C-alpha cells in the first residue's frame, strides 16, 4: 500500500513538472498622480479608494485646482493624469493631450437660500437670454429687471477666478468663453458656492457635486439652485422642475432633459497614450469596474458604446 502511494505521488509530481503552472502576475505597484478639475475631484477620490482595495501597493495622489491647472500639469509631466471638465482644444491635442471621457455631470446656477426673491426665482426661473444678460452683457442691474418687476435690489454676480471647466462650460451655454463672463472672481468651486450662499442678492454657478450635499442629496445648506426656464414661458413647468435633489438633476442630465452644455463629459487627460502600467491599469479599471461607483457618487455613467470606444483608444486600437 505504501509503495503504491509513493508511486502515485511520484506520478503526480512528474505530471506537474510536465505541465508547469503559469506564475501569478506580480501585484500592481507604483504611484499615480492626478490634478485638476474640482468637478472630477469627488469622483476621483472615490475611484482611488475603491481601486486601492484590490491594488494596495499603488499610491494615488489627487489634488484639485481647476481644469486649466490639470491640463497644464499633465502636459508638463508634473502629474500622470489631468482632470479636465471641458472639451479639449485642438492646440492642446497638438501638444500631446490624450483625453479619455470617464463620466458626465453638469453645472447649475446658484443663489443664496436667503435670497429675497427666491420664491419668484423658483417659480419663474431665468431664461438662457437672462443668464446671457447677467453674465455677458451686464444689462440687468437689478433683480426686478431680471424677474419682470419694479424692484431695485442689485444683482451681485459671481464667477470663477481660476481657469476651470465649470466657467468654460457655463460660458459655452451662454455662447461665450470663460473670459467673457463678468462678475466678482472667486477661486474654486467651494469658494464660489460660499460666496453665493453668504450674499442674499448673489448669483453664481457650481458643479453639481459642490451645489448638492453628498449625504442629504439636497442643495447644500444655505444654497439654492436657480432653475432654467428652458421653453421661455416665464414659469418652471413640471418637465423643467428637476432641481430638488442631486438624483433629480443627474436623472435629467442622463435623459437629455437638461441642456448640454451646461451638462458635459469629464475627462482624464494624459500626455500621449499612458505608458506606465499602473496609470493604464487605473484608467482601464475606471472605464470598466469603476463605473459601478458613478451614480452613487453623484455623476452620470457614460453610454456603453462610448466606454467601449474609450477603452479601444486606451489600448491603441
Q: How would you describe what is shown here?
A:
- This protein is an alpha/beta fold.
- Strands 1, 2, 3, 4, 5, 6, 7, 8 and 9 form a 9-stranded mixed beta sheet that branches.
- Helix 8 links the parallel strand 5 and strand 6.
- The longest helix is centred in the first third of the chain and has 17 residues.
- The radius of gyration is 25 Å and the shape is elongated.
- It starts with a helix and ends with a helix.
Which descriptors apply to this entry?
alpha/beta, nine-stranded mixed sheet, 317 residues, single chain
Which secondary structure elements does this structure contain, and how are they paired or packed?
Blueprint: H1 2-18, E1 30-36, H2 41-54, E2 58-64, H3 67-76, E3 81-84, H4 90-94, E4 97-112, H5 118-124, H6 128-137, H7 143-147, E5 156-160, H8 165-173, E6 184-186, H9 189-198, E7 202-207, H10 208-211, E8 223-226, H11 246-254, E9 263-271, H12 277-286, H13 304-314
Parallel strand pairs: 1-2, 1-3, 5-6, 5-7
Antiparallel strand pairs: 3-9, 4-7, 4-8, 4-9
* Form type: elongated
Estimated radius of gyration:
25 Å
- Figure out the total of helices: 13
Q: What is the total tally of β strands?
A: 9
Q: Which structural class should the secondary elements be placed in?
A: alpha/beta
Amino acid at each position: 500500500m505504501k509503495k503504491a502511494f509513493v508511486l502515485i505521488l511520484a506520478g503526480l509530481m512528474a505530471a506537474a513538472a510536465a505541465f508547469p503552472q503559469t506564475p501569478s502576475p506580480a501585484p500592481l505597484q507604483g504611484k499615480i498622480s492626478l490634478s485638476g478639475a474640482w468637478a472630477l475631484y469627488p469622483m476621483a477620490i472615490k475611484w482611488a479608494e475603491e481601486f486601492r482595495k484590490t491594488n494596495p501597493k499603488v499610491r494615488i495622489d489627487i489634488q484639485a485646482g481647476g481644469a486649466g491647472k490639470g491640463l497644464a500639469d499633465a502636459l508638463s509631466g508634473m502629474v500622470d493624469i489631468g482632470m479636465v471638465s471641458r472639451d479639449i482644444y485642438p492646440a492642446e491635442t497638438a501638444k500631446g493631450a490624450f483625453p479619455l471621457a470617464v463620466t458626465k455631470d453638469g453645472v447649475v446656477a446658484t443663489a443664496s437660500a436667503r435670497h429675497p426673491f427666491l420664491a419668484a426665482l423658483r417659480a419663474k426661473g431665468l431664461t438662457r437670454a437672462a443668464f446671457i444678460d447677467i453674465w455677458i452683457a451686464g444689462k440687468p442691474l437689478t433683480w426686478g429687471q431680471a424677474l419682470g418687476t419694479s424692484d431695485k435690489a442689485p444683482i451681485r454676480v459671481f464667477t470663477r477666478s481660476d481657469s476651470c471647466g465649470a466657467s468654460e462650460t457655463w460660458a459655452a451655454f451662454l455662447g461665450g468663453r470663460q473670459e467673457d463672463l463678468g462678475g466678482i472672481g472667486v477661486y474654486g468651486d467651494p469658494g464660489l458656492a460660499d460666496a453665493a450662499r453668504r450674499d442674499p442678492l448673489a448669483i453664481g454657478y457650481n458643479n453639481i457635486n459642490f451645489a448638492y450635499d453628498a449625504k442629504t442629496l439636497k442643495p447644500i445648506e444655505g444654497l439654492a439652485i436657480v432653475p432654467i426656464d428652458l421653453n421661455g414661458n416665464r414659469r418652471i413647468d413640471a418637465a423643467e422642475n428637476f432641481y430638488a435633489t442631486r438624483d433629480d438633476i443627474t436623472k435629467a442630465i442622463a435623459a437629455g432633459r437638461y441642456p448640454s452644455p451646461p451638462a458635459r463629459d469629464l475627462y482624464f487627460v494624459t500626455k500621449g497614450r499612458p505608458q506606465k502600467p499602473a496609470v493604464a491599469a487605473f484608467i482601464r479599471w475606471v472605464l470598466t469596474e469603476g463605473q459601478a461607483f458613478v451614480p452613487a457618487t453623484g455623476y452620470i455613467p457614460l453610454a456603453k458604446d462610448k466606454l467601449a470606444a474609450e477603452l479601444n483608444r486606451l489600448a491603441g486600437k
